[in-house]
Amino acid sequence: MIDYSDLIQPDKGQDARLIHVVDKSGYDEWLKTRNARERAHLAAVGFKPDAFVHAILPGDDPERWAVVTAVAKADGLSAWCLAKLAQILPEGRYRLEGQPPGKALFGWLSAQYRFDTYQSNPSVKGPRVLLTTDVGAIAPTVAEMRAVALVRDLVNTPAADMGPAAIEKAAERIAKAHGGTLTVTKGEALEQGYPMIHAVGRAAAKHHAPRLIEIVWGKEDHPRVALIGKGISFDSGGLDIKPAAGMRMMKKDMGGAAHVLALAELVMASGLPVRLHCLVAAAENAISSDAFRPGDVLKSRKGLTVEIGNTDAEGRLVLGDALARAGEDKPDLIVDFATLTGAARVALGPDLPALYVNDDALADDLMRGGTERDDPLWRMPLWDGYADLLETDIADLGNAGSSSFAGSITAALFLKRFIPEGTLWAHFDTFAWRPSAKPGRPKGGAALGLRATWAMLQARYDRRGKGEAS
């Protein structure tokens, strides 16, 4: 297991190779400062100051080489501008010439993530260590990277090893490590108290039985924040079975649960002054003689009845019960994460989570957090004009829209029915997956929206050191 705290160290003048950061606008001036041998070498290798391009600068002896790398803006480093170097450079210590790494610290760590649990003979590169004079940035950057790595690990793990019981185990570890109280509801109690979670998961084998997992932490007089995650450990589609191509990556359908567990650990480890209520609705949407059916009518925890139009629209069902439970404690804020709709991916692709918010100021805080952390979001409309698409003849609402239009919006509108009036709420329809690698962002499980949400929570609730006691 990687110890990310070893990969960033305080700069105390240790011996380290230099990384020169340049951009197109400043490259010619920088080049004038180099010696004739370096200029000749860069000309010979055809170096151009294009993003993610780098070259080795020879030193006075074979071991005294340095690196030059091109970025979009040398005076405003992004999280990802050094990530490619962190993936390909030899092990050793490095420092930037003339500036601290800033946000690029995170990408340096992220690039060295690996998931090799199932490899018989994994290839392991030695650590690439980045030095920084900004010592105060080290601990929070490492904490965020550990959260992102947790999301990736949980999502990358195959469903056979990451069923509802394994998700519970992950929650138990987090609660125990940070003094949280863990409560798990399953069996008859789940059927009575959370009927939609039970219905979605009842077809699964006993060792993958559905459950509601809750962690409560923090002082009771602090603002109550509820984090809710969709934990569908595998989604066959149920009786409305998915085609093979659509089912292939459905181990990632618990990506929402992975996000909120990682966020919960950030909240608890940092001592954020909130009363945290983390809820994970964990189930496997399987197929058996006991599977719930199209046309069934389910009663929800809130009392609303839901006609099943499609058993593959199960995520909103389990979230509905979890949202209702969270709302009973009158939280200051509810945030949910879910790999909810293919429609969001059609609209926004794999990189951008679809964000639905019922308050403009909260939306602004989240968008600002995404910009600060290089964790982009895209706000979508909670357009009530489409609410009629969820109408049904025999129940309070249907779980699948009557039209193929606006699928992500109607899913969000379904969830909105379970939010108490006047409660701040944000919903992330996230992919939790990268279909192809980018520098610092490997193919596989991905934390999308997590760091933006953490920035929002810190800005809203962390008044320590700002004249207010915790």
TrEMBL record:
One of its GO terms (cellular component) is cytoplasm. GO terms for biological process: proteolysis. Residues 310-317 form the Cytosol aminopeptidase domain. Keywords: Aminopeptidase, Hydrolase, Manganese, Protease. GO terms for molecular function: manganese ion binding; metalloaminopeptidase activity. InterPro entries: Leucine_aapep/pepB, Macro_dom-like, Peptidase_M17_C, Peptidase_M17_N_1. Belongs to the peptidase M17 family. This is Aminopeptidase. The lineage of its organism: Bacteria, Pseudomonadati, Pseudomonadota, Alphaproteobacteria, Sphingomonadales.
